[in-house]
Design brief:
This protein is mostly helical. It has four domains: about 1-75 and about 240-325, HUPs (Rossmann fold, 3-Layer(aba) Sandwich); about 85-240, Rossmann fold (3-Layer(aba) Sandwich); about 330-385, Helicase, Ruva Protein, domain 3 (Orthogonal Bundle), CATH 1.10.8; about 385-490, Arc Repressor Mutant, subunit A (Orthogonal Bundle). Helix content is about 45%, strand content about 10%. It contains 20 helices and eleven strands. The strands form five sheets. A three-stranded antiparallel sheet has the order 3-4-7. A two-stranded parallel sheet has the order 1-2. A two-stranded antiparallel sheet has the order 5-6. The radius of gyration is 33 Å and the shape is elongated. The structure holds glutamic acid (GLU). Glutamic acid binds near residues 10, 11, 43, 212 and 216.
Length: about 500
């Protein structure tokens, strides 16, 4: 078989949302797995609802996820243009071709009257189909109306019989043509309908497989008939199940962020989002969950798409983020954390230079507790900046014992002499200091943690002290003692 050509065809009437991104991702994975071509086409025929800003937002979302396209905006290609707004003449020509071949006809009925009839029927709970008033007008009649310039739409002439197509996800779908009315392909204002433009483009762009959301299933019969009317090969379809919120209702804003870029702003890693989206409605056939981009390309097949709806679980996304974060190297984390540290006033170019090794150790220590890059920076702030206060609950819980200040003074002196300044030696010194003072090691451990980090929770205090360093730890212990004696600053 020749290499597949697939497409993602967003309408730029909103930002790239989770469902759209997942559709794009499946197309991309399929193309990359098969060595095929991934086309990006912008369906902007609805000029009032589309905007350049939305197009830019969609491209940004795709770039962030690493979904590069082989043909489309910015990169061009042999099947362009890739904006539907630049292809209107093709749709008009195609509609006329359908009329010429007898697959469509001019309809002079007044659209407002038709709308009124349809709505009246709906109010009574009935459906109304176009009554084919114009389906069999005499040629002279049509010619006269054309001469008079009477406005008209172009309607598809539904053939009799049954039609079927194969859906990779849902199997063979067969329908009776009689249930579909003679639908409009070109409106009286010469605007194409979605069915016409999408089929004309998929034929022009030589699309072999249409992978798209389940919400398009009911559109497919009309489109299959259009392919046949154009004498074109019908592509293979794969309709991907809907994404539901945790309450099993269709994913929407009420479930939280639905725009992909909102997840970037929240500090999620693109590789985590990528992995998470890939498993929304697709499975590798075993229980693997954690994948790199390359592993997904290797594993992805359309057969793995589930026919049941997928559930968007935000906690799972956080889990993926944590897992992918844990797998990033020190240098990879450095480039992503730099802007956050800069924002905090904690960045120093030496973190890439002389202090690179030290910085990587800090990252390794903080990683197990962090869900996001920002957590690393915020939870590890004390590695870069002296604490400017102490967590109130921790102070209440651990610093109220009388006599703590002189005990910390003795411990500070011992610490100043610890050699080598390693976690094990620091721990031994702390325990010895506690023992010689007749107090519990825990009292010194808690106080040291609060002095050094300002917080009640941190990784192992001995690891922390070793990395914060002798001088800064001794100074921070002294500062805490000052605060203890002052009372008020605590
Ligand atoms: N532009 C359509 C949408 O955004 C997609 C059309 C298709 O994939 O066939 O829903």
């Amino acid at each position: 078989m020749s290499r597949p050509r697939v497409r993602f065809a967003p309408s730029p009437t909103g930002y790239l949302h989770v469902g759209g991104a997942r559709t794009a991702l499946f197309n991309w994975l399929y193309a990359r797995h098969e060595g095929g071509i991934f086309v990006l086409r912008i369906e902007d025929t609805d000029l009032e609802r589309s905007s350049d800003e939305m197009v830019a937002g969609i491209l940004d979302g795709m770039k962030w996820l690493g979904l590069d396209w082989d043909e489309g905006p910015e990169v061009g290609g042999a099947h362009g243009p890739y904006f539907q707004s630049e292809r209107l003449d093709r749709y008009r020509d195609a509609a006329e071709r359908l009329v010429a071949s007898g697959h469509a006809y001019y309809c002079y009925c007044n659209p407002d009257e038709i709308k009124a009839k349809r709505e009246a029927a709906e109010r009574e709970g009935k459906t109304w189909s176009y009554d084919r008033t114009c389906a069999n007008l005499a040629p002279e009649d049509v010619a006269a109306r054309e001469r008079a310039g009477q406005p008209r739409a172009i309607r598809f002439r539904m053939p009799e019989g049954r039609t079927s197509y194969d859906d990779v996800v849902h199997g063979t779908i067969e329908f009776d043509n009689a249930v579909i009315e003679d639908f409009v392909v070109l409106r009286s204002d010469r605007q194409p309908t979605y069915h016409l433009s999408v089929v004309v483009d998929d034929i022009d762009m030589a699309i072999t497989d249409v992978v798209r959301g389940d919400d398009h299933i009911s559109n497919t019969p009309k489109q299959v008939l259009l392919y046949q009317a154009f004498g074109a090969r019908v592509p293979r379809f794969a309709h991907v199940p809907l994404i539901l919120g945790p309450d099993k209702r269709r994913l929407s804003k009420r479930h939280g962020a639905t725009s992909v870029m909102e997840y970037e702003r929240q500090g999620f890693l693109p590789e985590a989002m990528f992995n998470f989206l890939a498993l929304l409605g697709w499975s590798p056939g075993d229980d693997r969950e954690l994948f790199t981009r390359e592993e997904l390309v290797a594993a992805f097949t359309l057969d793995g798409i589930a026919s049941s709806n997928a559930v968007f679980n935000p906690e799972k996304l956080e889990w993926f983020n944590q897992q992918h974060l844990a797998r990033l190297s020190g240098d990879e984390i450095t480039s992503r954390i730099e802007p956050v540290l800069r924002e905090m006033g904690a960045w120093d170019d030496e973190l890439r230079g002389a202090r690179r090794e030290w910085f990587h150790q800090v990252i390794e220590l903080l990683k197990p507790r962090a869900k996001k890059i920002r957590d690393l920076a915020e939870q590890g702030r004390y590695f870069f900046i002296d604490p400017d206060g102490y967590e109130e609950a921790a102070v209440k819980k651990h610093l109220s014992a009388p006599g703590l200040s002189p005990q910390l003074a003795a411990w500070g002196e011992a610490l100043a002499a610890v050699e080598p300044f390693t976690p094990a030696a620091i721990e031994a010194a702390l325990r010895a200091s506690a023992e010689s003072q007749g107090i519990k090691a825990a009292a010194l451990i808690h106080a040291t943690r609060i002095a050094v980090t300002g917080q009640g929770v941190s990784p192992s205090v001995f690891d922390v002290v070793a990395l914060v360093g002798r001088e800064r730890t001794v100074a921070r212990l002294a500062k805490l003692r000052e605060a203890l004696s002052g009372g008020a600053t605590l």
